[in-house]
């Protein structure tokens, strides 16, 4: 990716940060922030997005001509959008839409981009990515080769049957990317939502609450999709999944780093103002050292994100690099969020600040887009392969 240059990207990032801090942070007290524990209401999302358009920060990582910022440029923008859990929703940099836009931009045909991508970039619609399947069905989770959902051609259509689980934002989405397996291998299809053949069985109660629509279990019953709505080629679905997931993992790191930075700000202010045992909390080594350790983790996370983004910008798929970033950054952010809660004591586990929610969101982040342990295992296999090549 050529991008626009870091100076211009930082200008965009500054506008995003000002918008999030001045306009979006006050919404954190809005009663529409959680609908039955499953993310902000559609009304609230569209209200915030109207203000983002007016401020010129809607989908800021995608330029008016359709070109995408480089990954390094995207990082400085997405980190700022994540200063509030509502920021990515308002600015349209949130998962799964951000990853779906990236995939469509890379793989979609001109007609598919016009029909499906355009409404996502404008922020008029949300999307869902249907890949993960219920463990009870023996379906695909961290191992996509276990996929049970099937598709087969029928005239000028494909027919899809199966069940999916943990489908983020399925409730309320208008664009879906459905993954299924054919005799040739994995395939992806673009579908308009809602569709009577795609039925939400239930929305799960999960620890996180930032994503509208929550995470759903979905039944797909004889879904008929026109052949021209297959994304890319039949049998190439796993390859396309990596096109999406490598940068998407990194984008999660960017957004939640913004949340960790905000938590550190709140915890620091608390520790500097709150007194105990005759002095400010920050003057107690047990507290001050936690904040110092957080600052180290923040700076290391920034460096890891920048390094991985640079690899992706070279045109390399960067699967190993994104796995390393996912592990290192998600674990660092968990340490930061946990220490912020600890510094703030009872206030830290209450809803009086956003710190408690960021703690919950980061805890979930250590699992989605691949748990830490799966990424470590994948890297260990690569280490073994590289050794074998170097030592035939």
TrEMBL record:
GO terms for biological process: fatty acid beta-oxidation using acyl-CoA dehydrogenase. One of its GO terms (molecular function) is medium-chain fatty acyl-CoA dehydrogenase activity. Residues 128-205 form the Acyl-CoA oxidase/dehydrogenase middle domain. Residues 8-124 form the Acyl-CoA dehydrogenase/oxidase N-terminal domain. GO terms for cellular component: cytoplasm. Its EC number is 1.3.8.7. It is an enzyme of class 1 (oxidoreductase). The keyword Signal does not apply. The keyword Flavoprotein applies. Keywords: FAD, Flavoprotein, Oxidoreductase. It holds the Pfam family Acyl-CoA_dh_1. Its cofactor is FAD. Residues 235-383 form the Acyl-CoA dehydrogenase/oxidase C-terminal domain. Homodimer. Belongs to the acyl-CoA dehydrogenase family. This is Acyl-CoA dehydrogenase.
